[in-house]
Amino acid sequence: MIEFRNITKTFNAVTVIEGLNLIVERGEFCVLIGPSGSGKSTILRMINRLIEHSAGEIRFAGEPIRSFAPEVLRRRIGYAIQSVGLFPHWTVEANIATVPRLLGWDAARIEARIAELMALLGLDAARFRTAYPHQLSGGQQQRVGVARALAADPDVLLMDEPFGALDPITRDSLQAEMRRIHAETGKTIVFVTHDMDEALRLASRVVILDKGRIVQSATPRELLHAPANDFVREFLGKDDYGLKLLSVETAGAHMRREDSGAVAEAVREQDSLRLALSHMVALKTDRLGVEDSTGRRVGLLLLADIVT
Ligand SMILES: Nc1ncnc2c1ncn2[C@@H]1O[C@H](COP(=O)(O)OP(=O)(O)OP(=O)(O)O)[C@@H](O)[C@H]1O
After folding, report:
1. Domain check: are 140 and 264 in the same one?
2. Distance 262 CA to ligand 1 centre (A)
3. Which residues is 158 bridged to in the sheet?
4. How many A from CA of 254 to the centre of ligand 1?
């Protein structure tokens, strides 16, 4: 879907990206992570030509990105950023409709799309449709920002620390929304973050950057089980490394297919072992039931199965 071939970027003779090769496949949730100044945002912005690369070639949908006019590229590539960038004097619906309007969609199609996206992002249309950005909380604004980025059904969604400024609870719920949206829409997503837990939770692939170079590109599990070097190990953190390992394992994969009817509390199959462990500690129990997405009990999870 997106391919970087030997990409270099220099700003005023200073090289910030050097010899970058990266392929983001269709449907991937690719998370770029690295220290401040490692080049994450620059890489993201080169994809939609907000920043032009200096050497090498970037391809999008099989064509060099320079063969697309920037505005054509930006209609096919949604972009959501931390500061949201909503138009302050436009209502929520007008903000969401920005690109469909530019594309000349008819009013009925735009209406339907606004309703669909507000539902997808968990925004109450009756309450927020005609509200202005300043009347919304940070989390609600961020949801509108994501809805706007998805409005014209782009092939790719670029997200630059979209949840960086949010409180942990709102952040958590938006991460869960992004996982669901990715699963439901199959969009190709390139996402920048500083937060390793966020990366492990969302990514199908994590790309770790340092000083404009890729240090490791791997699935969350590969990364945790085989960090490429000390830099990656350091980045994964020492104190909660075990918890990170649990965060990429699901309750469903570790449960026993046994009747858990006698156990009061349960987690869902897709919940992480980290969450299950947290519940066990809070509830002072060594066992939890496991439910499928319809709430039906499908198994039993024991503390012993988490730590072995
Ligand atoms: N317009 C610019 N002019 C000059 N240098 C720039 C410009 N934009 C970025 N840089 C430099 O390029 C390097 C990479 O910046 P970039 O914003 O891509 O890093 P980042 O990994 O996204 O950082 P952060 O996590 O702090 O947002 C930095 O050293 C930065 O100072």
Report:
1. no
2. 56
3. 79, 190
4. 42
User: Tell me, what's the ipTM?
Assistant: 0.96
CA of 218 to the centre of ligand 1 (A): 24
**Type of residue at 125:** A
Pair 149, 289 in one domain:
no
**Å from CA of 42 to ligand 1 middle:** 6
Using CB distances shorter than 6 Å, the residues near ligand 1 are 11-12, 16, 34, 36-42, 194
Residue pair 211/227 in contact (Cβ under 8 Å)? The answer is no
Q: What is the CATH number of the domain that holds 218?
A: 3.40.50.300
- Minimal-distance CA residue to ligand 1 atom 12: 16
**Cβ distance 207 to 25 under 8 Å?**
no
- Is the predicted pLDDT of residue 9 greater than 90, yes or no? yes
Is the pLDDT at 83 greater than 70? The verdict is: no
Q: Provide the number of structural domains found in the chain.
A: 2
pLDDT, tens only, 10-25:
999 999 999 999 999 9
Residue 298 and residue 182 share a domain: no
Amino acid at site 116: E
Do 202 and 161 sit in the same domain of this protein?
Answer: yes
Ligand 1 atom nearest the C-alpha of 194 is 25
Pocket test of ligand 1: the residue of 38, 43, 50, 52 to mutate, having most ligand atoms within 8 Å of its CB, is 38
Residues 230 and 155 in one domain: yes
| pLDDT digit string, tens, across residues 165-213 | 777 887 888 888 888 889 988 999 999 998 999 999 999 999 999 999 9
Q: Which residue range(s) make up the domain with 268?
A: 249-307
- pLDDT at res. 32: 97
Reported as a single tens digit per residue, the pLDDT across 236-266 is 888 888 999 999 999 999 999 988 888 899 9
Conformational region of residue 62, where left means phi above 0, alpha means psi within -120 to 50, and beta covers everything else? left
Same domain, 211 and 106: yes
Single out the residue in 209, 229, 244 at which a domain terminates: 244
Provide the whole-model pTM.
0.87
C-alpha 132 to ligand 1 mean position (Å): 32
- Residue 69 and residue 202 in one domain: yes
Strands across the sheet containing 297-302: 266-268, 287-291, 297-302
- Residue 165, helix vs strand vs coil: coil
